[in-house]
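ok new one. same drill as before - structure tokens go in, u give me an amino acid for every spot. 315 of them this time. try not to just spam alanines like last time pls lmao
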């Protein structure tokens, strides 16, 4: 669950009904005289008391006007520090995993970086990869060996209180494309991928749950491990490359934030040896997604590597 957003509003204002109203110092009946002006002068204490009362009435009218404006205006996401994001992460991990998240020498620096990133803390940009400084304007690409915890971290952070996103395994996205209109399912093809190629709108009814964000990002899990030669009625498409290219085009067009796309992978950029046959090569991401992939990845992502010695936590 997301942290409860700050309630910028209090309860609705009550009907204006002052507990006490000023009292007039009236003349005795026998001293009263009718006057054509129908006016009686106020003494100094009456003037002070009624001015205070009018001030109270004016405040309540202003409060009611402000309340109507406040409940109807678009709410802004709440700011969080990296320390608060870490506290949120610990609770979210406990909720999702059913036990505390194990932090050790292999993932502690990465967890710290992610807390800085999702707090939009400028200290994140003091770090970098391959001589390039990280940027809060880019998404995340977590790279590491099988079972090192990439997907777990990405999934736990998906409902973070600043920049929420949807996590989709790449193999499932391929299934969305290859689906052929079976009973109860819509047809696949490129049209079925449109949802993932652009900004993902959040329902207005979910605004408070997602800390008043109007849209969410997308995280592609395990890129490079899917069937990248998938077909729909004989039409072949590299599904993940299509989605990443489309989202990159949306960034260039100004209709999608660059930080709204994340990914995980255990596949290197370059082709790499097979374990069973050293003379053969497995295709790397540049082979799978084309020669523009390396450049596109550097433009879209902050690349964060797990240590090569990180253990397989699934064992």
């Amino acid at each position: 669950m997301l942290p409860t957003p700050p309630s910028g509003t209090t309860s609705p204002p009550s009907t204006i009904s002052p507990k006490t109203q000023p009292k007039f110092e009236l003349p005795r009946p026998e001293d009263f005289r009718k006057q054509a002006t129908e006016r009686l002068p106020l003494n100094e204490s009456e003037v002070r008391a009624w001015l205070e009362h009018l001030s109270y009435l004016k405040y309540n009218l202003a409060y009611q006007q402000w309340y109507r404006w406040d409940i109807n205006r678009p709410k802004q996401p709440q700011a969080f520090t990296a320390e608060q994001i870490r506290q949120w992460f610990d609770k979210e991990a406990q909720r999702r995993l059913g036990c505390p998240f194990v932090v050790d020498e292999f993932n502690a620096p990465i967890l710290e970086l992610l807390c800085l990133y999702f707090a939009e803390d400028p200290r994140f940009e003091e770090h970098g990869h391959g001589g390039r400084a990280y940027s809060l304007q880019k998404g995340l690409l977590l790279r590491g060996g099988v079972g090192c915890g990439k997907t777990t971290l990405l999934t736990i952070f998906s409902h973070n209180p600043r920049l929420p996103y949807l996590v989709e395994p790449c193999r499932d996205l391929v299934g969305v494309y290859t689906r052929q209109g079976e009973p109860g399912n819509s047809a696949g093809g490129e049209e079925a991928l449109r949802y993932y190629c652009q900004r993902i709108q959040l329902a207005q009814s979910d605004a408070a749950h997602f800390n008043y964000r109007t849209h969410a990002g997308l995280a592609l899990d395990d890129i490079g491990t899917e069937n990248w030669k998938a077909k729909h009625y004989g039409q072949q498409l590299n599904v993940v490359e299509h989605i990443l290219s489309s989202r990159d085009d949306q960034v260039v067009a100004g209709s999608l934030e660059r930080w709204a796309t994340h990914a995980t992978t255990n596949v290197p950029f370059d082709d790499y040896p097979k374990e069973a046959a050293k003379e053969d090569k497995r295709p790397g991401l540049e082979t799978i997604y084309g020669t523009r992939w390396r450049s596109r990845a550097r433009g879209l992502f902050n690349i964060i590597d797990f240590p090569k010695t990180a253990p397989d936590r699934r064992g």
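Residues 1-9 have pLDDT under 50 and may be disordered. and btw The first helix runs from residue 44 to 72.
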